[in-house]
Amino acid sequence: MLTFGWHNFCDMMNDTSPKPRILVAGGTGYIGSHTVVELIQSGYEVTIIDDLSNSNASVIEGIAEITGHRPDFVKCDCADFAAVDKVFSDNEDIKAVINFAAFKAVGESVQRPLAYYRNNLNIILNLLDSMTRHGVKGFVFSSSCTVYGQPDENPVTESSPVKKALSPYGNTKQIAEEIISDAITSGAALDAVILRYFNPVGAHPSSLIGEMPNGVPLNLVPYLTQAAIGIRKELSVFGDDYDTPDGTCIRDYIDITDLAKAHVCAIDRIMGGRMAAPMEVFNIGTGRGVSVRELIDTFQSATGVEVPHRIASRRAGDIAKVWADPTKANDVLGWHATVPLGDTLLNAWKWQLALRQRGIQ
Ligand code: UFG
Questions:
Q1: Phi-psi region of 267 (alpha: psi -120 to 50; beta: other; left: phi over 0)
Q2: Whole-angstrom Cα distance, residue 208 to residue 354?
């Protein structure tokens, strides 16, 4: 197999030959849009497919303003095989696929399990089928630390046991990982990188793209910024009686731009022919566990803005503590978390202010 280092690869891309095109499914969403920015800034051509069911086409403008380059966009329901396959037929230069397209609300998945299984698994199957038909091998899948459940030990490594999923949403991540693995075992020509994200937070430092929760936010940071700006009365801290130093839950909060860059490292590895196995799994986290209380304190120090909050009862299904061992991603992908949490939370706050300025929230 022809292999070359990333620097040679960059040299190759500096010539006039066409740059590899990456198909980003779900590319107008929160993680997808930040990843598209990093891909473009690293020299890749990007085609986004998204049905805009949980995002807005205005995100494309933000990406174009940040990068000076407008990615191709096709409005497409990724759960519709014919629609997905047409995108591959129309773009013969697609070299790899990153999938972000999925329903992602944990609580809703408990209420509507069949919709979650149908949508999230059809998307994976459609993408893998079309990739096979069109000879595309590279695949990056967004998985989650949810596959570890409540780990017996922290930090978790990629070989920590995968626990029974606590929700249909979490189960779709586990099943998708198994589908990819089974496809490879059966001989499918794939180079698949599975990224298990910890808790993605923050926004692009330009405040041109960020998270746009639909309705009442379910995750900590968007709720916190909405409470800080006065959209919500106060943040409820779900439980202060956990077996942790300050009693609140501990997570590994990873900056969204750092997380986006992990996808570029994965694509570089695939495109550079450097995969050590057809499927590689990486934890993408900082390696640092942060409690809810610590996160509120860090936000307040970074922004000078008070967060109205109160202690509430535990939220069903929450695990007490989980954080990553990112050593494998550091050593093998050459990826490192770089942004301090205070900067990340300041970016989240600036994004909240930008949304207000634009009259969105
Ligand atoms: N929290 C609060 N108040 C809130 C929201 C959250 O105290 O209003 C706490 C939670 O109890 C938890 C921490 O903040 O301790 C983080 O909660 P998030 O909802 O932001 O994130 P989770 O760790 O629950 O969710 C993450 C991912 C999901 C994934 C899930 C699996 O965001 O995609 O882990 O457990 F499915």
A1: alpha
A2: 8
pLDDT tens, position by position, 206-236: 999 999 988 899 999 999 999 999 999 999 9
Please check whether residue 345 is in contact with residue 221, taking contact to mean a CB–CB distance below 8 angstroms: yes
DSSP 207-220: SSS----SSS--SH
Bridge partners (DSSP) of residue 218 are: none
Q: Report pTM.
A: 0.94
Q: Rounded distance, CA 218 to CA 3, Å?
A: 44
Give buried/exposed letters for 131-159 (b at 16+ CB in 10 A, else e). Answer: beeeebbbbbbbbbbbbbbebeebbbebe
Cα-to-centroid distance, 94 and ligand 1 (Å):
35
* Residue whose CA is at the smallest distance from ligand 1 atom 34: 146
| Interior angle at CA 171, CA 83 and CA 164, nearest 5 | 165
236 lines ligand 1 (CB under 6 A): yes
- State the pLDDT confidence band at 107, using cuts at 50, 70 and 90: confident
Confidence of residue 16 (pLDDT cuts 50, 70, 90): low
**Measuring CA to CA, how many Å separate 338 from each of 32, 40, 41, 70, 148?**
19, 20, 18, 27, 24
Query: What tens digit of pLDDT does each residue of 111-155 get?
Result: 999 999 999 999 999 999 999 999 999 999 999 999 999 999 999
Q: Which atom of ligand 1 is nearest to the CA of 319?
A: 35
Q: Is 88 in the pocket of ligand 1 (CB under 6 A)?
A: no
169 is catalytic: yes
Which residue has its alpha carbon closest to ligand 1 atom 8?
220
Ligand 1: which residue has its CA nearest to atom 7?
237
30, 116, 169, 253: which is the annotated catalytic residue? Answer: 169
